[in-house]
Amino acid sequence: MTSYETLFVIKPTLTEEEINAQIEKMKEVLAKVDAELLATDDMGMRRLAYPVEKNERGYYTVLYYKANGDAIAEIERNLRINEEVLKFLTVKYTNGKELAQFEKLVAAAGKSAEPKAEEAPAEAEAQEA
Q1: CATH code at position 9
Q2: Using H for helix, E for strand and C for coil, what is the string for 58-108?
Q3: Nearest CA to 47 among 62, 32, 58, 60?
Q4: How much is the pTM?
Q5: CB 10 within 8 A of CB 19
Q6: How many independent structural domains does the chain possess?
Q7: Which residues sit opposite 47 in a β-bridge?
Q8: Domain encompassing residue 85
Q9: 27-46 pLDDT, tens per residue?
């Protein structure tokens, strides 16, 4: 299986629950095409370089995964038909240097996700006390 990174930008007019639902929808598409999701990097709301469909901002999410080449067409088809997605980009990592960089990106995305999981129990304990 080949390593891929897909960045997609969701409309800023959605609520947090709707944004999370869109991200989960893409994760389900990855599972459906037998792709192995390695990490997710929610970059959050950011300013776009130029207005897209009259939107100045967008919610950025990056998915790092391994999949077969024929799965990419299905993933991109789902992104293309989703009206809530403004833009998307898929990058394929093939040679040694690219794969080394891919592993670093996956590790960084994994580390950024871990503190959020650790903070939540600490906050819950503080609220109980």
Answers
A1: 3.30.70.60
A2: EEEEEEEEEECHHHHHHHHHHHHHCCCEEEEEEEEECCHHHHHHHHHHHHH
A3: 58
A4: 0.78
A5: yes
A6: 1
A7: 57
A8: 2-128
A9: 999 999 999 998 898 999 99
